[in-house]
Amino acid sequence: MNLVSIFRPYWNRVHRIVVQLVCFALFLLSIPVDLSAQPYYSKYYTRDSGYHYFSSLAAYEDCFYVLSHYNDPAVGSRFGASAILQYDWEGNLLQSDTLPPANGDFYAWPEDLQIVNDSMLFFVAQDTNSLFPVLFNRHKRNFELKEINPIFNQFFYSIANGLHYSPDCYLFPKYQTARTFGRQGYKWYLRDLVIYSFKNNKQDTIVIPESFYNLSPYSIVRNRANNILVGGLYTDWDYLDSTDYTFRQFIYEFDTALNLVRKILSPEVLKLGGAKDILEDRQGNMYCAGSDVIWHVDVKYMVGNYYNRLPAISKYNANGEFQWSKRIIEVDRITDSYYSATFDQDSNHIISAGEYFLSDTTYWDDTSYSSIRSGVISKMDLQGNYKWNRLYTARGSGRQTSWNQFNDIIRVPQGGYLLCGSSEVAYKQDVNEAGWLMKIDEEGCYIPGCHLISQTADVQNVELQVWPNPARGRVALLHNFDQNVTIKIVDAQGNLHAHYRNIPALDTQLVNLDGFRPGTYYVHLHTASGKPLQVKQLLVL
Fold first, then answer.
1. Long-range contacts of 224-227 (CB under 8 A, 24+ apart)
2. CA-CA distance, 510 to 471, in Å (whole number)?
3. Backbone angles phi, psi at 239, to 5 degrees
4. How far apart are CA 355 and CA 53, in angstroms?
């Protein structure tokens, strides 16, 4: 007996297996499985030391960029530095480019990342003494900086916003404390609105004082007439000893020569917070994403006067006349606001994002305090009717203080929305603040189908078995929850394909997949009242 005769049976068996695998692979390639559905996700990004704080976004067809403020004690960074991070559409980091300090100082709180053209991105950064318009060439990966010097004092405590207005023109609204007045033996500083322009390497400045009121600018955009809109907060809160402070939203409009065209102020009686973002519809109506203000005096846990901010959208018509302001919800919350907004694909709805502090997630006992601040995403029609609100946290749950917020939202080429922000788990020395990215569908879900469930997703430790997976023809579902549950199966676009009620624990539910097109689906498990329990992905062949 030779070696060939010994190994021939095994060779024939291996040959048959290889042929079967090749045939099966060719069969799978011939099936029109829809694997092109854009994945959605919620991801956070940390550093080995220091922190990340994602402030704004810009998207191209093939990738997107994130502007990050970060510090790194390991390399001697005192306060912070600025970086542009490039990601693919699955949220994978491709490259990072750090803005190098020019004078041994640091570049803090970069804002307003904008696309100039296919090669160039623009943002604004600052250090303790100067303001910097920054151009970043994404192909050459280099930075080009200009420098703007303050006319009154240092920039440091006033966060910058910027607008790349034309090929070599940059605009920046700031507040600066140039004026003072005396009251009750104290000298008070007033914040004036200052517009810096930098055109053809020449700096110019416009100063707008408002009597005894402070002006704090939060946003700068161009409108349909190519004029400049600066939005912010008009208030006397910082210095008057009163229980009835003035809180007004302002929009100041300038022409291209920086002449003040008009001032728009919200009604004083409403006490609206600052305009953090401004949108304009086809008719010239303006929508401000921000907050409104509620005053409280001597409450249970906070002695003295303080105010709540509630996320709100306000509308002004094309003539600048106030129309309405709509809160996210008609109950008291603390330190909430929308920070960014965009229109949906048809420009019939506003999608806004920010932070939302839930009072019922605040815990007090004899020795400790904890709370959860969530990122919030809302959809509203142009008449002021909320369609949905989604609350998300990147990290933290239960009695663990966790602060999560969205700082920017943009509509993306593939459909849906991309958000960035930050997540901090407080009072834990070994947990650093993280940058936060979330990609959601048109319904505000990063797990498709969340809009079919009445409450915000809160996946628990409940087993949900989906077998086989991938599946063809039929699939079996099995859970171990101690009550009867509801099961919904949705596709990657959030469309409902199957709905089963009152499914007991350990009772196998067989699902007929006839009529299911090949592609990715999601199996949602929740209680009869709508409380989410678990979700699993299912691939139908």
1. 224/280, 224/284, 226/256, 227/253, 227/254, 227/255, 227/256, 227/261
2. 12
3. -135, -25
4. 14
Q: What are phi and psi of 232, to 5 degrees?
A: 180, -155
Considering only residues 508 and 221, tell me which one the structure prediction assigns the higher pLDDT: 221
CA-to-CA distance for 67 and 314, rounded, in angstroms?
Answer: 28
CB 488 within 8 A of CB 532: no
Q: Tell me which DSSP letter residue 471 carries.
A: B
What's the sign of the alpha-carbon dihedral 271, 277, 281, 284? positive
Kindly state the DSSP code that residue 137 receives in the 8-state scheme.
Answer: E
User: For 124-164, what is each residue's pLDDT tens digit?
Assistant: 988 777 888 999 999 999 999 888 888 776 565 667 789 99
Which residues have CB under 8 Å from 385's CB, separation 6+? 326
Which strand ranges, in their side-by-side order, compose the sheet holding 51-59?
Answer: 51-59, 64-71, 81-87, 93-98
Residue 517: DSSP 8-state: P
Rounded-to-integer distance, Cα 406 and Cα 400, Å: 19
Domains and CATH numbers, the chain: 451-541 (2.60.40.1930)
Residues 217, 249: Cα–Cα separation, whole Å: 10
Measure the CA–CA gap between 360 and 387, rounded to whole angstroms.
Answer: 23
**Residue bearing the bigger pLDDT, 493 or 512:** 512
Q: Give percent above pLDDT 70 in the chain.
A: 74
Q: What is the mean pLDDT of residues 495-503?
A: 84
Cα–Cα distance for residue pair 389/382, rounded to 1 Å:
16
pLDDT, residue 332, reads 53
- Using CA atoms, how far residue 51 sits from 73, 160, 506, in Å, is 9, 20, 45
pTM of the complete model: 0.78
Amino acid at 177: T
